Amino acid sequence: MAYNSMDTAAFKDVWVFCEQRQGKMMPTTFELISEGRRLADELGGSLCGLLLGDNVEGIAKELGGYGADKVYVCDHPLLKDYTTDGYTKVLTDAVKELKPEILLFGASHIGRDLAPRCAARLHTGLCADCTHLDVDLNGYIEFLRTASSLDVDNTSFESNLFDPVRNLKMTRPAFGGHLMATIVCPRFRPAMATVRPGVMKKRPYDASGAEKVAVEKLNVALSAGDIGCEVLETVKAAKKLVDLIGADIIVSVGRGIYTDVDKGIALATELAEELGGVVGSSRAVVDAGWLSADHQVGQTGKTVHPKVYVALGISGAIQHKAGMQESECIIAVNKNETAPIFEVADYGVTGDLFKVVPEMIAAIRAAKAAK
Description:
Blueprint: E1 14-18, E2 20-21, E3 24-25, H1 27-43, E4 47-53, E5 70-75, H2 84-98, E6 102-106, H3 109-122, E7 126-130, E8 132-134, H4 137-147, E9 169-174, E10 179-183, E11 191-195, H5 207-212, E12 214-217, E13 249-253, H6 261-275, E14 278-281, H7 283-287, E15 308-312, H8 318-324, E16 329-334, E17 347-350, H9 353-369
Parallel strand pairs: 1-4, 1-6, 4-5, 5-12, 6-11, 7-11, 13-14, 13-15, 15-16, 16-17
Antiparallel strand pairs: 2-3, 8-9, 9-10
Helix pairs in contact: 2-3, 6-9
């Protein structure tokens, strides 16, 4: 049967593009497989991973441990190094043959390059840099209830343009993060999205799932003539960046340090060092040029889930809260007792951070000395 992206009834199952580099799966892949499992359950379909590379079949089983029912492996020497042309051809060939209903990519450098090229060839839509996904309408309404200012109870979700129950609802920041937009692709399949790393929670690894996952090798029709470039060398450059996503403890600063920026950052750094954590920030701090963008937490920065999140002088705008409210323990320090950050904080201190933080540091040092 000829491929027709408008024949929506012919498409089924949820697929995840499983990004690997040098035979090692990228962490975002496990996050997407975990999220894909939920979406597949809501649709009543299967979750399939799509793995491209050279001699990568040996790492396919690992995906079953995070929820995949099946892994399609496209193994070919010309897929050893990522090329836009090569990966696009092989991926779109697989989609045209097997017709997934949903196709997810991590919003990595490779995902951001590959997904739009594939969407154009497949004649479908792509929602980029998503921070939330839903199929189930009731689940989406509950998400809106807690993560938006929309009056959910007095809003109609009926539509003459699309089926609100079956379509993938893809939510992403818009207008510089000041609004959250939910986008659907009602007339074409697959519904495609790139998802920001660190946003989705990774499921616990299940060894039994890895044992029972089905692995199927697909025929790969690829020649050197299909690829318009040649990878001569891969050079890795080390750049020191803050690893917010992998940190267990984050101490973030906000606009409240404006009276003495250098001292505020120094106090946050000192507190983070005592706790064994890293320094983060709100968007206002990055916009002001006080810290670099790799420190930013929030919808337009990084979404984090540390064991402890300390917010110093951060009011708690909805964009910031959406990026850190899933932290296991949230400690907030703010002079404004009505600051929104206290709504999600487990512990709150109403006071001047320049006075409170030195006392926190002293207390931590005293506790360490007493051991």
